[in-house]
């Protein structure tokens, strides 16, 4: 294979494609961008080259194929087209790998067919991911393309954590188990946290709190994920921007039988109209904190419910791990919302968890420790970088091939 060092990372959603072209020599971005509203009127492509001006195209992108062709043209205009000898792989984010895909995988027709077979367990995400793969393969059939799965890092969950306590035959027939999501982020952040502590990931136990619009927690023991808060779907676990997280499953029967709601309406309620949005009408933590500060009771309730759930998971994962070396906050809320970190850790000195208020209030884009040096558990803020992790995994795979 060529000695090139560029990897293109693609994250195809149902109506969007995000991309980054990364130079693996130093992890730098040669270009990055986003196509939105694919298949809808008034699409938009925003392309930002490494050392140039941001460029924007407003036009209709009929489908993912048209969108990716436009991305390829933008890259070519910077001398970084898909035919560049520097490009050695395309890394695709794929949400659901089921039980079959537990590591980055070189994409073949058979792999695409298997990812397609997983659509029933990931109806919202896998179809778009497959479209991205097919379009990219059509544009560069000879280039190695690698699927990196959001579920893969959680494949190490022990059976007693991965199983729901339901009839095993029913569970197995419908592939019902806890898969977990955001795995690429949990993997990247748990390793970066060990590095921040100057220790080998194999030696440290970390609780990772990925708090973005979607949110999940994981317990990572010596680099191996042993528990995570999302389950069969990304709906389980923490209170999120628009998802409820944990509810009594009986609530579904109740809303159907007594409330007269259909399954699709309940799905929409729990995934898109719940969480912070459902509690107070806003899902942006900045706005919620501002409103709570002004005494708005709904915003205060949303903030408190969010933090309460987070603390329940923190305590649970402490017990799962037995010994905790670090807690890492990441993603939009985790990296930026100092009051959420402070509230999540308040009063836990007995567990060795403490924050330094001054360190916690510093705004920075760097990985950093925000607990005092004497604290038994290091509390860290570690910016996540899923694209870099995908690029690294894809690059390692093609280099080893
Ligand atoms: P993500 O999904 O990781 O992009 O996170 C998006 C969420 O992060 C937004 O919905 C906001 O709630 C939150 N967020 C972003 N910036 C800030 C900030 N400066 N303070 C508080 N929350 C923020």
Automatic annotation (TrEMBL):
The note on cofactor binding and number reads: Mg(2+). Can also accept Mn(2+).
Q: Give the highest taxon in the source lineage.
A: Bacteria
Q: Which UniProt keywords apply?
A: ATP-binding, Cytoplasm, Kinase, Magnesium, Metal-binding, Nucleotide-binding, Transferase
**Which gene codes for it?**
ackA
UniProt site (Transition state stabilizer): 182, 243
Give one Pfam family, short name only. Answer: Acetate_kinase
Essential cofactor(s): Mg(2+); Mn(2+)
Q: Which protein is depicted? A: Acetate kinase
Where mainly found? cytoplasm
Instruction: List the catalytic residues.
Output: 150
Reaction equations catalysed: acetate + ATP = acetyl phosphate + ADP
Name the family the entry cites: Belongs to the acetokinase family.
The residue range of the signal peptide is none
Q: What is the lineage of its organism?
A: Bacteria, Bacillati, Actinomycetota, Actinomycetes, Kitasatosporales
């Amino acid at each position: 294979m060529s000695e090139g060092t560029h990897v293109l990372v693609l994250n195809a959603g149902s109506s969007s494609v995000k991309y980054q072209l990364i130079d693996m020599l130093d992890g730098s971005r040669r270009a990055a961008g986003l196509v939105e509203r694919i298949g809808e009127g008034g699409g938009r492509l925003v392309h930002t080259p490494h050392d140039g001006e941001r460029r924007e195209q407003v036009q209709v992108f009929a489908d993912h194929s048209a969108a990716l062709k436009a991305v390829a043209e933008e890259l070519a205009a910077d001398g970084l087209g898909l035919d560049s000898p520097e490009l050695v792989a395309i890394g695709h984010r794929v949400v659901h790998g089921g039980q079959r895909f537990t590591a980055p995988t070189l994409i073949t027709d058979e792999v695409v067919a298997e990812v397609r077979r997983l659509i029933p367990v990931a109806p919202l995400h896998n179809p778009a991911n497959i479209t991205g793969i097919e379009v990219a393969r059509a544009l560069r059939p000879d280039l190695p393309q690698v699927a990196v799965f959001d579920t893969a890092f959680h494949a190490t969950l022990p059976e007693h954590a991965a199983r729901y306590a339901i009839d095993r035959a029913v569970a197995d027939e419908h592939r019902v188990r806890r898969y977990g999501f955001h795995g690429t982020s949990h993997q990247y952040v748990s390793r970066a946290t060990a590095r921040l502590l100057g220790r080998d990931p194999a030696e440290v136990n970390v609780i990772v709190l990925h708090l973005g619009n979607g949110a999940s927690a994981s317990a990572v023991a010596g680099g191996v994920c042993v528990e995570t808060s999302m389950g069969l779907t990304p709906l389980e676990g923490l209170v999120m921007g628009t998802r409820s997280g944990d509810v009594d499953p009986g609530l579904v029967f109740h809303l159907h039988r007594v409330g007269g709601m259909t399954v699709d309406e309940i799905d929409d309620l729990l995934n898109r109209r719940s969480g912070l949005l459902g509690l107070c009408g806003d899902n942006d933590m900045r706005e919620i904190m501002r409103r709570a500060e002004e005494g708005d009771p709904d915003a205060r309730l949303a903030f408190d419910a969010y933090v309460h759930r987070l603390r329940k998971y923190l305590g649970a994962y402490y017990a799962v791990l037995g010994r905790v070396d670090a807690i890492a906050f990441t993603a939009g809320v985790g990296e930026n919302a100092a009051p959420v970190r402070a509230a999540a850790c308040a009063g836990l000195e007995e567990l060795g968890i403490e924050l330094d208020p001054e360190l916690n209030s510093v705004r920075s884009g760097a990985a950093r420790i925000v607990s005092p040096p004497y604290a038994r558990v290091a509390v860290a803020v570690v910016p996540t970088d899923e694209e870099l992790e995908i690029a690294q995994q894809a690059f390692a795979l093609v280099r080893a091939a």
